[in-house]
Amino acid sequence: MRSLWFVLLLSGCVTLGVGPDHVLHPRLDEVTDGLALDPAAVAAAVPGTTLEPFPITATDGTPLSGLRARHAAPDGARPTVLYFGGNSFRVSWLGMKKLVPLLRLGADVVLVDHRGYGRSGGEASVEALKADALAWFDAVAAEVGAERVVVHGHSLGSFLASHVGAHREAGGVVLENSATTTEAYAEARLNAVPVLRPFIRLRVDEALRGEGSLGPVREIRSPLLLLAGALDGRIPAWMSEELYAASPLPSGRKRLAVFAFADHNRVPFDADFPRVYRSFLALVRAESSGRRRQAVGVESP
After folding, report:
1. CB atoms within 10 A of CB 212
2. Helix axis angle, 182-191 relative to 237-246, nearest 10°?
3. Rounded mean pLDDT of the chain?
4. Mean pLDDT of 88-98
5. pLDDT for the residue 23
6. What domains sit in the chain, N to C, each tagged with a CATH number?
7. How far is it, in rounded angstroms, from Cα 193 to Cα 195?
8. Residue 56 in contact with residue 139, Cβ under 8 Å?
9. H-helix or E-strand spanning residue 39
10. Cys bridge to 259: 83, 248, 251, 270, which one at CB 3.0-4.6 A?
């Protein structure tokens, strides 16, 4: 580390480029058969649930892999959480940890592998992932109704969730540990090492410039829940606070929860998470029922 400081001091300033390769790190599955999660393990953790593959085909013909978990007990108003994971997420790895907390709250869940990740085909790119996110939403909404789909994204996945929320009228949008923009995220990571900051100049690739949740959050009209960990060393909680402030929704339709003892990956395991999420799902249910009644009233003679 000392030698690095010495080089920086001699050079005066170093330009650090931030491109898609710094943000997208596709990981493929080694497993080639069976479900990514063990149905018996899920059923033991949340009795009365079933798992089934949920594949779709992207608009460019690329096969995308997903997994759907459903409660056996009938409930015509039950929300379905469409979950977009972070950069390390694959359904086969971390899927169990993300799935069970949501199932225990009474929602059905669809987990997806990003393009180029897990069992999904294709090559990951910013534009392709955003197009895929819309295709995922449309596929789930076609089965359960758009007003019952809660689009939940964590970290990298939050950019996709906010993109969907800005272009589709979902039942609700959840942004967990979300960044405002790529530029702000890169600056925050660099500022975490203050001794180096004066010697480094950032250059964000055009493909990433302006990407993030700040622009889309201004267009989201569905109920919005922002989740952040106060101990998050990757994406600081103040970014979620800025997203909350940027949202034009009234306070009754947007919510912010910063968990004091959670870091980047521990928000769903905070003791207060179930209460916060259940309350949001109740809001989604109430609005969904209202939209259905309104639609019936409009269509009735």
Report:
1. 23
2. 150
3. 87
4. 88
5. 74
6. 27-299 (3.40.50.1820)
7. 6
8. yes
9. helix 39-45
10. 270
| pTM of structure | 0.88
Ramachandran quadrant class, 122 (left: phi over 0; alpha: psi -120 to 50; beta: rest): left
Rounded Cα gap, residues 62 and 57, in angstroms: 6
**What does the DSSP assignment read for 196-233?**
TGGGEEEEE-TTTTT-SSHHHHTT--S-EEEEEETT-S
Spatial separation of the C-alpha atoms in residues 202 and 204, rounded to whole Å: 6
**Quick one: tokens of 210?**
């302006």
Contacts of 130 (CB under 8 A, 6+ apart): 159, 160, 163
pLDDT at 204 over 80: no
Q: Tell me how far apart the alpha carbons of residues 55 and 85 are, in angstroms, rounded to a whole number.
A: 16
Model pLDDT, residue 1:
42
pLDDT at 239 over 90: yes
* Unique residue bearing structure tokens 């910063």: 258
Going by C-alpha positions, the residue among 137, 144, 97 that lies closest to residue 273 is 97
